[in-house]
C-alpha cells in the first residue's frame, strides 16, 4: 500500500491571528493539491479552540480541488445530532465525489472542552457512548432507508436521509487519539489516526490494533495506520525548536514540555525530518498528515513538496 501525505489547513491559526477570511485557506488547499499532496485536512472545535466549521469549509475545498482526499482532523461526533451529521456528511461527500474521510475523536478531558460540551448541551461524561452511537447511526443512515435505532442516548424510528454519500456505505471513518478508549475502539474503524505521542508508541500499538481487528474477523489490512504530526522546518534547529514551542503554547495555552510529551513533533532541518518521517512509514503508517508550526504556510507546502515528499520511501 502506497504512503499518502496530507496537509492541515490552519483554520485555528487564522482565527487566533484575527484573519478569518477563507480565501487564503482555500488557496492553501489548491496549492497542496497542485504540489502533489494526497489529502487536505481541517480541524474541529466549536468554542474550545475557535475555528471555521470544518464540514462547511471542506465543501468549499471540494469545489476548488479535484484529486485530494478531504478529511476532518478530527471531528467530535458527540457534539452533533447523528441525523443532522449524516445528512451534512452525505451532502459533503456528494460535492467531493467520494473523497471525504471522516476523522473523528472522543474529546480530551480539558477545561475548555468541558465548557464546549456544556455550551452545546451535551454531558461531557457521556461523550464516549454518544460518540459510538452517533457513528453507528450515521453508518446505518448512509447504508439504508427506514432506519430505526434504540440506544442509551438516541432513539430513531423509520428515518431515511438523502442524499446518500457518493461513496457506497459512506466515507471511511478514522479514529484519532492514543488513550485507552481510542485504542480499544480503533479496530472497529477504517484507520487509527493518533497525534502522537511518538513513533515508538505508534510502532508498539499499531500491530495490536491490527491484531484485534483480525481477531474480530476483519481483513488483515482493514485498519490503516495514520498519524497527525507537527513540523517546524528550519536549517537552524534552535530556531525551529523556538518556533515549535511558541506555536504549541499559543495554540493550546499550555507549557510546551507538557504538549511535547503528548504530540508527535519534529523541529529542525529537512534532512532530519526525512529520517524521522521514514521511521513512521517503516512502523506501518500509510498516511501522514502535516501540520506546519507557524510561519508562511504556502511556502512550507511548496518546500515540503519539493524537498520532503520526493525523498520518502512511499511504496
Quickly describe the structure.
The chain has a single domain (4-311), classed as TIM Barrel (Alpha-Beta Barrel). 44% of the residues lie in helices and 17% in strands. The protein contains twelve helices and eleven strands.
User: What low-confidence regions span 5 or more consecutive residues with pLDDT below 50?
Assistant: none
The protein's oligomeric status is single chain
Query: Mean pLDDT score, rounded?
Result: 97
**Helix/strand/pairing class, anyone?**
alpha/beta
Number of strands: 11
What is the topology, as strand order, of the major beta sheet?
1-2-3-4-7-8-9-11
Gyration radius, to the nearest Å?
19 Å
Notes on the protein architecture:
- The protein is α/β, with parallel strands linked by helices and about 325 residues long.
- The chain has a single domain (about 5-310), classed as Luciferase-like domain (TIM Barrel, Alpha-Beta Barrel), CATH 3.20.20.
- It contains twelve helices and eleven strands.
- It has helices spanning about 10-15, 25-35, 55-65, 80-95, 110-120, 125-145, 180-185, 200-215, 235-250, 255-260, 270-280, 295-305; strands at about 5-10, 40, 70, 100-105, 145-150, 155-160, 175, 190, 225-235, 265-270, 285-290.
- Strands 1-2-3-4-7-8-9-11 form an eight-stranded parallel β-barrel, surrounded by seven helices. A two-stranded antiparallel ribbon has the order 5-6.
- Helix 3 runs parallel beside helix 4 (about 80-95) and helix 4 (about 80-95) packs across helix 6 (about 125-145).
- The protein is globular, with a radius of gyration of 19 Å.
- The model has no long low-confidence stretch (mean pLDDT about 95).
Amino acid at each position: 500500500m502506497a504512503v499518502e501525505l496530507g496537509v492541515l489547513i490552519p483554520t485555528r491559526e487564522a482565527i487566533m491571528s484575527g484573519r478569518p477570511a477563507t480565501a487564503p485557506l482555500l488557496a492553501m488547499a489548491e496549492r497542496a493539491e497542485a504540489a502533489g499532496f494526497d489529502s487536505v485536512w481541517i480541524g474541529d472545535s466549536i468554542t474550545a479552540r475557535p475555528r471555521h466549521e470544518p464540514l462547511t469549509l471542506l465543501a468549499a475545498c471540494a469545489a476548488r480541488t479535484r484529486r485530494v482526499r478531504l478529511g476532518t482532523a478530527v471531528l467530535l461526533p458527540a457534539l452533533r445530532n447523528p441525523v443532522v451529521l449524516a445528512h451534512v456528511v452525505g451532502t459533503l461527500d456528494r460535492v467531493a465525489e467520494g473523497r471525504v474521510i471522516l476523522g473523528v475523536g472522543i474529546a480530551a478531558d480539558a477545561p475548555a472542552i468541558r465548557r464546549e460540551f456544556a455550551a452545546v448541551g451535551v454531558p461531557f461524561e457521556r461523550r464516549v457512548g454518544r460518540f459510538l452511537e452517533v457513528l453507528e447511526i450515521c453508518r446505518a443512515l448512509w447504508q439504508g432507508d427506514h432506519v430505526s435505532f434504540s440506544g442509551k442516548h438516541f432513539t430513531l424510528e423509520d428515518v431515511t436521509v438523502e442524499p446518500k454519500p457518493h461513496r457506497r456505505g459512506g466515507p471511511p471513518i478514522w479514529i484519532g487519539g492514543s488513550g485507552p478508549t481510542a485504542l480499544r475502539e480503533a479496530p472497529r474503524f477504517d484507520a487509527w489516526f493518533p497525534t502522537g505521542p511518538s513513533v515508538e508508541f505508534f510502532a508498539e500499538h499499531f500491530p495490536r490494533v491490527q491484531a484485534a481487528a483480525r481477531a474480530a474477523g476483519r481483513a488483515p489490512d482493514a485498519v490503516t495506520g495514520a498519524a497527525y504530526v507537527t513540523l517546524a522546518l528550519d536549517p537552524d534547529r534552535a530556531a525551529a525548536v523556538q518556533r515549535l514551542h511558541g506555536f504549541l503554547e499559543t495554540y493550546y495555552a499550555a507549557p510546551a514540555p507538557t504538549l511535547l510529551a503528548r504530540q508527535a513533533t519534529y523541529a529542525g532541518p529537512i534532512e532530519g525530518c526525512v529520517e524521522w518521517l521514514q521511521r513512521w512509514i517503516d512502523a506501518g503508517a500509510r498516511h501522514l498528515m502535516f501540520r506546519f508550526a507557524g510561519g508562511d504556510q504556502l511556502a512550507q507546502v511548496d518546500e515540503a513538496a519539493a524537498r520532503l515528499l520526493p525523498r520518502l520511501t512511499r511504496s
